[in-house]
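Let's see one such:

===
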Amino acid sequence: MEKLSSPKITKEIVQKYNFKFSKSLGQNFLIDANIINRIIEGARISDGDYVIEVGPGIGTLTREISNIAKKVVAVEIDKNLIPILKDTLGDRDNIEVINEDILKVDVNKLVEEKLNGGPVKLVANLPYYITTPIIMKFLEEDVPVSDIVVMVQKEVADRMKANPSTKDYGALSVAVQYYCDVDIITKVPKTLFIPQPNVESTVIALRTHKSPKYNLKDKSLFFKVVKASFAKRRKTILNALSSYDLKLSKEEIKDVLKEAGIDEKRRGETLSIDEFAHLSNIIYEKVLP
């Protein structure tokens, strides 16, 4: 059987089922076998692995993953794709397709019931408008995921990978790098999709830390400090934190910054994750009841 990634086969399936691409769901089907291989290699998939795929489309990537992995659970929100997936994946007994919105799924329960309790790998060609919510859902809900390998808009990948004092560095950079090491796998031109998206894409790999990399006294406070620091990028770190509800006066924040060894005139975008961690830990001590 010719691979589903063949443009000819993809077009035939779309025509056979009279499938209409949904702009609201951000549907673009990948039609390049080399990129699919790069995604699988990037996810370091081997036999015995349990994989969650979000947005399988017509099953192009799903089928190739199932050649290696022990089991794949593919979560597809579009009910119009379910008959197509039954057709393209029906001969595989290690694939289960679920017609759900991944953002509403209890992923830990899914892993426990269908994927042997994990660990799992998340692989996806995500609709760009829900890229960040899906990735953060897996990270913040402590899903036992070792690798997240996803196709994202190039600008989003740049932000996830960014270092301090660069234009792309922001709250997303800190959030992702708090949980993961970030690798860029490959860039993907828009010509390798049907229909072509309006943006260039990047396959990015997030390798979750096996144990916490940063010593935090209060994780929610850490992220509150990060959010405050990037809320108004032109403000100094002193003014940014002072205008946020941290239960400290401006003078108290001055003292905190001095204790942390951070110049009050610096901007949030210059702080490393270690500095944010140190700063939030000092604030925690100050605001303890």
